[in-house]
Amino acid sequence: MCLLILLELSALILIVAGWNTGPRKEIYYEPEEVKAAIVTCGGLSPGLNDVIRQIVFTLETYGVKNIVGIPFGYRGFFEKGLKEMPLSRDLVENINLSGGSFLGVSRGGAKTSEIVDSIQARRIDMLFVIGGNGSHAGANAIHEECRKRKLKVSVVAVPKTIDNDILFMDKTFGFDTAVEEAQRAINSAYIEARSAYHGIGLVKLMGRSSGFIAMHASLSSGQIDVCLIPEVSFTLDGEHGVLQHLEHLLNTKGFCVICVAEGAGQDLLQKSNATDASGNVILSDFGVHMQQKIKKHFKDIGVPADLKYIDPTYMVRACRANASDAILCTVLGQNAVHEAFAGFSGITSGVCNTHYVYLPIPEVITAPKHVNPNSRMWHRCLTSTGQPDFH
């Protein structure tokens, strides 16, 4: 039996090498005495049901018989009328065949102390938190509060963000599916633009602070002429602005297709101090702003332009996981259970430098991961689109 590991080890060692994943020869908990809970937080992402399914499967393989789901994120710990859901292999057998979350999701939650009060009252020994940066921060706060109360509770996270923006992670589940699903929107925009006189297709994809979906979708489609992401500044007006380049494309090609990440161009818009339930700043809608600017620009210069704007945000994130994401979800879900049975807490399971590892939550939530404007991948995207430097 090993002691419950509370991550006193050097974070530097963990980030460089990570802990090896997989089952241990010796386990900390007696499976038949364990009560395990699963909660899905934040927004939807393809693969949530796959992770839930694999956590349940693996827990039952260990011999755990008391498995519950906490409905609608952290809200399920305190909202009256929301009861925990008993989970079993038979119940979750086919939930991976559809998108969304079998347990439901929500943003925000009660005070950490109230959540831990609920964990104590429910006699939960393992808590599996599936979520993004905010949900990871919540999981870490729960872990610290459990430490403070000297509770032997393993709090283990599984990184979920469709934006692929969690630090140190090569890839998060749902991202591959989102890029693949985005192709449908881009292809529709391309067909509309190609078929119209001076046609312009404009597609807005997810990406609050990181443009990974927009970049990869642009690269994979091969149909994008301009890709705009939050990490790279640009101007719309003027001799070297985006609008001038669109004029050039209509004059030379006769049509064009633009892909923008939702967080792009925020410096060009009026800022809002409003925040959502997760504490994220509510962004101004750059897609709509871009749509209006393009229409006004071509009207002002007397050039006809037929603009079609497509925002597939909720279609992209609500679909079922593709094969690549389903495999990733399977491994992450299984590894999360192995972590908990080893006695680990306050850590997350992911892929770092092509290896499946466990990393301390405080290290992965220090900042979002961003596209490096000097990276080869971004330069490949620029080569594919042929876009100039918009300054």
From TrEMBL:
Any one GO molecular function term: ATP binding
Reaction it catalyzes: beta-D-fructose 6-phosphate + ATP = beta-D-fructose 1,6-bisphosphate + ADP + H(+)
Phosphofructokinase domain boundaries: 36-338
GO biological process: fructose 6-phosphate metabolic process
Signal sequence, start to end: 1-18
Keywords noted in UniProt: Allosteric enzyme, ATP-binding, Glycolysis, Kinase, Magnesium, Metal-binding, Nucleotide-binding, Signal, Transferase
InterPro entries: ATP_PFK, PFKA, Phosphofructokinase_dom, PKF_sf, PyroP-dep_PFK_TP0108
Cofactor: Mg(2+)
Keyword Metal-binding on entry: yes
A single cellular component GO annotation: cytoplasm
Keyword Metal-binding among record annotations: yes
Function: Catalyzes the phosphorylation of D-fructose 6-phosphate to fructose 1,6-bisphosphate by ATP, the first committing step of glycolysis.
Protein's recorded name: Phosphofructokinase domain-containing protein
